[in-house]
Design a protein that fits this description.
Blueprint (H helix, E strand, L loop, with lengths): L9 E7 L5 H12 L4 E3 L8 E8 L6 H4 L4 E9 L1 E3 L8 E4 L7 H10 L2 E5 L8 E2 L2 E2 H6 L9 E14 L8 E9 L5 H11 L4 E11 L2 E2 L6 H6 L4 E2 H8 L2 E3 L2 H8 L14 E4 L5 E8 L2 E7 L3
Length: 298
């Protein structure tokens, strides 16, 4: 067994290329970081590009909490064709002319998919059904249904409508979506097309932001190969969570798992720092006491 790495803990914001799985990115980062303690906060499909948040060493403990934050995407939706995967990688299952669809119809369809909605995930997703990934069941030819789940689409903006020269029967929409964790952009494309009666699927997807981390902070794999560095865990936590500066005695107690008294922290995780600026824990206020949701002192 290889020795455990003692390298720096932190985040790496990767601009994922098309054609590579999120697990493939993690594998590359494990080699560059020299440790197996590497994970990601929320997958991207192989077709998709953009922001993938990677945690190294202790920062892997942040990932489950970062995965719950708001996300932003740019995408292209093709109206006039539905596919088995709800994106361009799947076979076309139905087609109907979309050239006559008006902007008013599109805007009405988009409005119906904005705000708190119940969304049925794409069947070719990583959701488990009876312990088996949904996409595995699809590949094995199973007929099943996924339950709808609540998500929030905070904004769904159509920037351009265009008809491709080589496919006059379809209509392409360039859009931006800001949404809660768990929202499937493929499913939005599918449902928009279904609502308009012509079918729809996703032909391009780029994630531009996960919580506070956006493309401006992201580096390509090629850049990381040339110069690998992490965003220190203290900076990463301070950017993503409200900060709570704890006195030295309180920090020592927190480091030992003691639930100390808190000020009025408000809802959600807070990053607790000691007087030296070190991240001690992520905590939540529970009855005036700090409940530790992730510790970083060891």
């Amino acid at each position: 067994m290889s020795p455990r790495s003692t390298g720096p803990s932190g985040l790496v914001i990767v601009d994922k290329p098309a054609g590579l799985t999120s697990h493939g990115v993690v594998s590359r980062l494990r080699r560059l970081a020299g440790t197996r303690r590497v994970g990601h906060a929320g997958t991207l499909d192989p077709m998709a590009t953009g922001v993938l948040v990677i945690g190294v060493e202790k920062a892997t403990r942040l990932l489950g909490h970062l995965a719950l934050t708001e996300k932003e995407y740019t995408a292209t939706i093709r109206l006039g064709q539905a596919t088995v995967t709800d994106d361009a990688e799947g076979e076309v299952t139905s087609a109907a002319p979309a050239a006559g669809i008006t902007r008013a119809q599109v805007d009405a369809g988009v409005a119906a998919l904005t705000g708190p909605i119940e969304q049925v995930p794409s069947k070719v997703s990583a959701i488990k059904v009876g312990g088996v990934r949904s996409y595995t069941r699809v590949r094995e030819g199973e007929d099943f249904e996924l339950a709808a789940r609540p998500v929030t689409v905070r904004s769904f903006t159509v920037h351009e409508m265009r008809t491709p020269q080589d496919a006059p029967e379809v209509l392409d929409l360039d859009v931006t979506v800001v949404c809660s964790s768990g929202t499937y952009i493929r499913a939005l494309a599918r449902d928009l097309g279904a609502g308009l009666g012509v079918g729809g699927h996703l032909t391009a997807l780029r994630r531009t932001r996960v919580g506070p981390y956006d493309l401006a902070a992201a580096r390509t794999l090629e850049q990381l190969e040339e110069s690998f560095a992490v965003l220190p865990i203290e900076q990463a936590a301070a950017a993503a969570f409200p900060r709570w500066d704890v006195p030295a005695d309180g920090a020592r107690l927190l480091a030992n798992g003691v639930r100390i008294a808190t000020p009025a922290l408000g809802a959600g995780p807070h990053a607790a720092f000691d007087p030296e600026g070190r991240l001690v824990a992520l905590v939540e206020d529970e009855g005036g006491k700090a409940r530790i949701v992730a510790g970083f002192a060891s």
